[in-house]
Amino acid sequence: MNKYVYTDKQLNELNQGPNVYSVNTEFAQRKENRTNIVTAKSDNELKKGETNTITTSDGQEFRVIATKSDPGTGFDGLAVAPMVNGKPDYKSVSVIAAGTDPGSSTKIDISTALVERDTSLSPQYFVADRFVKEIMDDPRYEVSHLSGYSQGSYMLKVGAKYHIPTTTFNAWFYYLSLSNDEKAFIDKNPAMFIDYRRKSDNVVVINDFNHPEWFNKSFLKMPDTIYWLDGTSHNIDDWEFDPVTGQVVDGKGGKPLISGVYRAYANSLREMAHYKDLKSKWSSGGISSSEEIYLDAAQGSILSSSMATAARTGADEVSALAKNANQELQEIWSKIDFTSYTALAPYEVESLFASQGITQAQFIDTFQAETDQIVAKMNAPAQAFEQLDKQLQGVIEKTVATDTQFAKEFRQWKAEM
User: Fold this and answer.
1) How much is the pTM?
2) In which band, very low, low, confident or very high, does the pLDDT at 166 lie, cut at 50, 70 and 90?
3) What are all long-range contacts of 210-216, with beta carbons under 8 Å and residues at least 24 apart?
4) Beta bridge partners of 93
């Protein structure tokens, strides 16, 4: 099955108040908020004022599978699984850590952020680390993405530790807090880590200067994970997104900074990182011939499924772009009012437009035929990759099944991956 690819907009909205912050009952019931309490309860356990489902503005539903609210540090977090074909995709779980809550009556949340500024690491990090590890250790789930806003951006460190793709917004985060191994992993796999920042963020500037020119003159080299945009706002809901792909756009040409295909690539890096960890573990005691078959099968499984996911993601993006372009063109045509020209009859106006080649057939139908052709061209290789993946997975299963115990271990590994 292809891995679910989260968009920037979905992750951003999961980081907002009515969602991750609302796992905290006090926040949800605060007079200025008045929102449902977000919980991981089953449907038949829900009470009035509670919800276990989050729906983002694009209509995508996410089932809440776990929540954590720690009064000792102010940490609030949740884990969600996207609903795919009516069922939760537990192999594509995303864990979100809330940013600082200025309205917290205890002010613990703000003090932990200040501690991070002085010590390079928020006390909330340790709670977040345990929360992510608990979900990772649950055989039902696979954590495929992490995200956080502001102080919650210590999720970058969690992601580097467990080799999980991570996206953050307005990061209040010291890269100096990374261990040598974590820093080395990020340096080798920068595509897995996306740190969206505004150059003149009026809050983060207090933490680490937060500007590409000043950053390099401070205490560390600017990492390749930071994506800079103009602006001063620190608000999570002030980011702009491409209406078709849901990715963050630059403030100039309105173009997405990162495509969904790039995220699919990041997912493949995550799986390959786990593969390398497994191979390294086995190598210490020497790799048997059976284990060699296992490792070859595992690598083949990752590569084929990753290619299929990337191809399908690209095809879906092109299809969405074509649909949007066709709708916009139809709207332009519908605004032409042939009756508004009083000197000529409507049919005469239409004839005049047609004499210059501007007809519905030429203006709309031809364009739509071309976009349909492009979509078909993109869809064909995506289907081919999916078919190839299916065939390869079948061959891999037959190869591994020569050893009953080995086959059991391989299927368990695939379920975990």
Assistant:
1) 0.69
2) very high
3) none
4) 143
